[in-house]
Automatic annotation (TrEMBL):
The lineage of its organism: Eukaryota, Metazoa, Ecdysozoa, Arthropoda, Hexapoda. Keywords: Oxidoreductase. Belongs to the LDH2/MDH2 oxidoreductase family. The keyword Oxidoreductase applies. Gene3D superfamilies: 1.10.1530.10, Hypothetical oxidoreductase yiak, domain 2. GO terms for molecular function: oxidoreductase activity. It comes from the Eukaryota. Pfam families: Ldh_2. This is Malate dehydrogenase.
Length: 361
């Protein structure tokens, strides 16, 4: 392979440096800038390109027009030994999320369970980022967030719920279970990645303005109407719709934040109003129940992975395995391979913010 054909690889540390510099350029305090960069490069490192650098420009635009407060610090409005209600004060989602999960962890260690709801938050990236904080402390963790309306309820041709992801994790001995999923068929970032690639959408991902399925990534993006997990009604899409509604009740409704169609639209240009997203962060100490939890979790995962695969070249995985494999692959080749389209966006951003552009391995 000639040097001209070699893929451009960005070291994880370089990706973090670039994104940190972007946030610093729009006056975000360094600790908040680094937390944001850690979150975004963490998504790319794990293979979730839809929630990594792909989101950078949107965050920067929100900060540049002051629809998000990059310096805001969350405050507790009400609490009990096991619960708390937090105001994110329109701060960065990762700042709110890290604070709230750490608070839930502290409560779980004291009384067994910590349940923290936040209002006044913003897009917080990959949901599993916060669950990982609980796993590192030997706790089960869960989080949900509502988002801008993008899901069409079953039988609707307009969006009334967000992608409304949920993440749940459980620690195991030298292992873990880590689920992170949207309650739509896919996250909206997956539509954006198909657009960047210039490729059609699979069936069951999105609707056109008449409420019919579409494979056109451009039309799907402009319509902004994703299908629930499961797709159309005939293939049980109403289950995804129900899960999405549950997430909004746990996060938006419970926290007194915006919910359903009250949440603003969010585009690459940013938004001129505060998101006021609702989020929930839960930590549970498994030692409050039957002893030997982590050993049983290891056995549990082993039984799933041990199932005979239908295709011998594709072993059965458990939630979190795919991300671990992706991190190993990045480590092996020495960097993250971004789409050319993404690199062009970053070059333009570096020029606009007058910062050092990305360098490649």
């Amino acid at each position: 392979m000639s040097s001209a054909q070699q893929p451009k690889l960005v070291a994880v540390a370089e990706s973090k440096r670039f994104m940190t510099d972007c946030f610093l350029a729009v006056n975000v305090p360094r600790d908040h800038a680094e937390a944001m960069a850690d979150l975004l490069v963490g998504a790319d490192y794990r293979g979730h390109f839809s929630h990594g650098m792909n989101r950078l420009e949107m965050y920067i635009n929100d900060l540049a027009i002051n629809s998000t407060d990059g310096a805001a610090v969350p405050v507790i409005l009400k609490e009990t030994p096991s619960t708390a209600w937090v105001d994110g004060r329109n701060g960065l989602g990762v700042v709110v999320g890290n604070y709230c999960m750490d608070l839930a962890i502290k409560k779980a260690k004291a009384v067994g369970v910590g349940w923290v709801c936040a209002k006044g938050s913003n897009h917080y990236g990959i949901a599993s980022w916060y669950v990982l904080r609980a796993l590192k402390e030997g706790l089960m963790g869960m989080t949900t967030t509502n988002t801008s309306p993008l899901m069409a309820p079953t039988r609707s041709k307009e969006a009334a719920l967000g992608t409304n992801p949920l993440s749940f994790g459980a620690p195991a001995k030298d292992d873990k279970f880590l689920l992170d999923m949207a309650t739509t068929a896919v996250a909206v970032g997956k539509i954006e990645i198909q657009r960047r690639k210039g490729e059609p959408l699979p069936d069951g991902w999105a609707q056109d303005p008449t409420g019919n399925q579409t494979n056109d990534a451009e039309l799907a993006f402009s319509t902004g109407c994703l299908m629930p997990l499961g797709g159309p009604e005939i293939s049980s899409g109403y289950k995804g719709y129900g899960l999405g509604a549950m997430v909004d009740i746990l996060s938006g409704v419970s926290a007194g934040a915006n919910y359903s169609t009250k949440v603003r639209k969010w585009t690459h240009a940013g938004a001129n109003t505060a998101a006021d997203l609702g989020q929930v962060f839960i930590a549970v100490d498994p030692n409050c129940f039957a002893p030997g939890f982590e050993d049983r979790m290891t056995d549990f995962n082993g039984r799933l992975r041990g199932c005979e695969p239908s295709d011998p070249s594709k072993p059965v995985l458990v939630a979190g395995d795919k991300e671990d494999l992706n991190m190993k692959a990045v480590d092996t080749v020495g960097g993250i391979q971004y789409l050319e389209n993404q690199l062009k966006t970053c070059a333009a951003l570096a020029e606009r913010l007058n910062i050092k552009p990305l360098s490649f391995n």
